[in-house]
Amino acid sequence: MGTARLLSRGSVAALGVAALLIATGLAGCGSARETQQIPVSAFRNYGASPLQHTFYIGSDARFHRFQWSNGKHGGTWLIARAEMDIVNEKSVDDPGVGRAGYFLSQRDDGRWMAH
User: Fold this and answer.
1) Domain coverage including residue 17
2) How many domains does the chain have?
3) What is the pLDDT of residues 64-95, one digit of tens each?
4) Whether residue 51 is found in the same domain as residue 81
5) How is the beta sheet containing 34-37 ordered, strand by strand?
6) Do the strands 34-37 and 73-80 form a parallel or antiparallel pair, or are they unpaired?
7) 2: how many CB neighbours lie within 10 A of its CB?
8) Three-state DSSP class for 22?
């Protein structure tokens, strides 16, 4: 049996994603990722792919927090809670909140929803 037959499709896919993350620097020693407070008008929802993404990681008393990446650039955005309405806010201090973050979608009424 060849080596390719010993690996399942899931294993091959997982290895491919890991190699992509390492090659692009997203898995550790990539470029410095900074935290910036931005106005809601500067917010961009880049989606949810490995190279372009915006994830909602929770809110505290003052800010909504987002991790984002657009190619080699990325970081954390802080947006004042008063500027952006998220229907189902998640507490950044809650241990039950997913560490990887939540996908976002904007409703017809302009409010945001975390999934």
Assistant:
1) 1-30
2) 2
3) 999 999 988 999 999 999 999 999 998 888 77
4) yes
5) 34-37, 73-80, 63-70, 52-59
6) parallel
7) 6
8) helix
